[in-house]
Amino acid sequence: MDRELREHSHRHTGQRSGLIKGAHVDALLKIKGIGTHEDWTGEPFKTYCRDLTAERIESLVIILSNSDIASLLEPQGKYGPIVQTTNIGCYRWEGTADLTNNDGFGRIEKMTVSDLRLEAQGRRS
């Protein structure tokens, strides 16, 4: 897996597999050298942040399957399932922020925040 990739997301865009008879989504993941299986059926999306040690995926296999041989599964909605990746950080952001606000009456406010730190809620490094 490319070390530059920071976040992985799998989206059942427009499709909730748990609501379609026979549809299943399974994932085989390898994190910290340990292989695991997860059932993603019924989840509209799944996201992992590689900035976090516990979510640093080394390999990923996504299995889309149909256990109902009497019906054909077709993507629902505008797009079918998709895997997205990004090299943008997904856990912690640090730096400064500058804001300029013009209230429309000729007053301009300028603000600067130093040592700014933003962290994703509900995630631990």
Question: TL;DR of this structure?
Answer:
This protein is mainly beta and 125 residues long. The chain contains no helices and eight strands.
Largest sheet, in brief, is: 3 strands, antiparallel
Stretches where pLDDT falls below 50 for ≥5 residues?
none
Shape: elongated
Strand order of the largest sheet: 4-1-6
The total strand number stands at: 8
* Mean pLDDT rating: 81
Helix content: under 10%
Our estimate of the beta-strand percent is over 45%
Order of helices and strands: EEEEEEEE
Tally the helices: what do you get? 0
Structural category? mainly beta
Give the N-to-C terminal Cα separation. Answer: 20 Å
Radius of gyration (CA) equals 20 Å
Can you describe this structure?
This protein is mainly β. The chain has a domain at 7-86. The protein has strands spanning 7-11, 23-31, 34-39, 45-49, 57-66, 82-86, 92-102, 108-119. The strands form three sheets. A three-stranded antiparallel β-sheet has the order 4-1-6, with no helix packed on it. It has a three-stranded antiparallel β-sheet with strand order 3-2-5, with no helix packed on it. Strands 7-8 form a two-stranded antiparallel ribbon. 9% of the residues are buried. The model has no long low-confidence stretch (mean pLDDT 81).
What is the topological layout?
Blueprint: E1 7-11, E2 23-31, E3 34-39, E4 45-49, E5 57-66, E6 82-86, E7 92-102, E8 108-119
Antiparallel strand pairs: 1-4, 1-6, 2-3, 2-5, 7-8
